[in-house]
Amino acid sequence: MKTxxxxxxxxxxxxxxxxxxxxxxxxxxxxxxxxxxxxxxxxDQRHAEEGFDKINDDLKDLIDIILEHDIILxxxxxxxxxxxxxxxxxxxxxxxxxxxxxxxxxxxELRKKKVYLIAVGGxxxxxxxxxxxxxxxxxxxxxxxxxxGYVVGRASKPGQIVHDKRALKQASLLFDT
Amino acid sequence: MKTxxxxxxxxxxxxxxxxxxxxxxxxxxxxxxxxxxxxxxxxDQRHAEEGFDKINDDLKDLIDIILEHDIILxxxxxxxxxxxxxxxxxxxxxxxxxxxxxxxxxxxELRKKKVYLIAVGGxxxxxxxxxxxxxxxxxxxxxxxxxxGYVVGRASKPGQIVHDKRALKQASLLFDT
Amino acid sequence: MKTxxxxxxxxxxxxxxxxxxxxxxxxxxxxxxxxxxxxxxxxDQRHAEEGFDKINDDLKDLIDIILEHDIILxxxxxxxxxxxxxxxxxxxxxxxxxxxxxxxxxxxELRKKKVYLIAVGGxxxxxxxxxxxxxxxxxxxxxxxxxxGYVVGRASKPGQIVHDKRALKQASLLFDT
Amino acid sequence: MKTxxxxxxxxxxxxxxxxxxxxxxxxxxxxxxxxxxxxxxxxDQRHAEEGFDKINDDLKDLIDIILEHDIILxxxxxxxxxxxxxxxxxxxxxxxxxxxxxxxxxxxELRKKKVYLIAVGGxxxxxxxxxxxxxxxxxxxxxxxxxxGYVVGRASKPGQIVHDKRALKQASLLFDT
Lengths: 177, 177, 177, 177
Hints:
The structure is a homotetramer.
Chain A (H helix, E strand, L loop, with lengths): L2 E5 L7 H9 L6 E4 L25 H9 L3 E7 L7 H14 L7 H5 L3 E8 L3 H4 L1 H14 L2 E9 L10 H8 L5
Parallel strand pairs in A: 1-2, 1-3, 3-4, 4-5
């Protein structure tokens, strides 16, 4: 089972990354840091006559990497009770891949993936992070991916995540069951 | 009471806009179309020594307009069970305004606002749009803004919203109670 | 299409009933008032060797009535952010019907039903009633019933529901789309 | 810190109890098993002229026990995506205590409590148990009690909970942070 981690954090070595490394150490699995890639926001042209404009950015490279793996771990700080902007932009663009003739088997491929989520927030994340968890669940449902588990950690200031013992433990057990 | 509508749609005259105009006609209130503005995604520098880098985009112009109004209506298509990317990027950047010395009264000002939400989605939005509603509720709680009401409409293809009679009616009654 | 309304309110002519009658007038459809019936709480004997004990109460009479209808409208006041106790007790007992040899086609029959929900609460029900809506959605998913719509009204003191114009309107349009 | 566990399970030694004992062993803390007590469902007489009828059951005995403790752990199997009927009936009746002249300091007393939740379900509880968690959160908000943490375990058949290693671990760490 090959694992790819999609990091949505805009800060290097932040709390979310720290928690994520408890599940997938830095030197294991494939780590994609969205902040290091250029991804344009979607323009909804699903119903445009000519379809979507071609966009010259890193989207397809990242999609190709993801499709080579069995497990996708989304790792995002909680920004305003949802995933980070860069992660949202990235996922929004999957709508475009869905209609791209170069990816005729996109949904079929995703259906085989197992998905995990790690999210970290500062404002009562075990409660206020729930909508984010539900969103990922719906995204998984849409693609018929199996949403296997999630960990929500609590941290605001740099380094604070080390105090959330429960989350660290959960992350280290993420793939266990 | 002055109303500003923040449109998160990336498509002109789409279903979300149509539904929104039932609540605030195009020639009433102030309409901001985020797609016509340049807003950069946030880089989380809350904890950087020098704070946030200055960014030369339209963020502050839009914030200034919003602060002049009493009612904020967020209008967004539901992309992947959450707000559109452009709206997420815009709201993420409010974190930066919170720490901007030019906006010492930002929170204090927002506390006086009434907030409404109109969202349109194609995949069982009355259920699967719920996390989005909860997010806006938490955002309002954070800023101590009053979340007064929301309408979730159902539409996928262009023009389809006209069939969601319940949503159209609700939108037209949005400010009634 | 025959409609049965299951009233979970413990108070006669309360706000929830008033709102419900906007959708299904008292003299139309079949109205079951759970408070007028004797239903025992479930004892979980799904895994007991002898199965469930026979219970002499009104459960099966009500189930029989429900099965004769096409549309089920659950109508409940929001007690502590969930359905009323009597309604919970009633629904809990469906687990027993699921294993009752007298009802071999229970799930099959329910699969054909359309379900609606009307709920009334006093504490920000449009937000805090959301978990209740989600529960009914999951219940419908379990039985593969179609969850067609819901109205959440706001009222606390007797009669107060008349001021929630939006909810009254929504209730009157409940079966429209 | 004195802990009281309120068990909502209707089955002795079930999965929910097993998971709960990882957090509070049987011989520690105070354990209330609702199934061993007689509690009547509420009749909403909040607005009746004479107020609530006196009811001769175990409600006040249990309330008195709870008020002597600092930590309340609610332990419930997930029945139809919410708490068990007996627990719902019990909590519904708190509305009556709120208006009972014998308990003038009920809310004031509860405000000092820390609350935890342990719930076990068989149908994707990490997702479908979310509304239950949110309900408890709102209940805690209402009484201004501090909702400190929760564990949702997965089990359906007797004994199955031993396989949910993550939940067992979480339960054992419940009071740690």
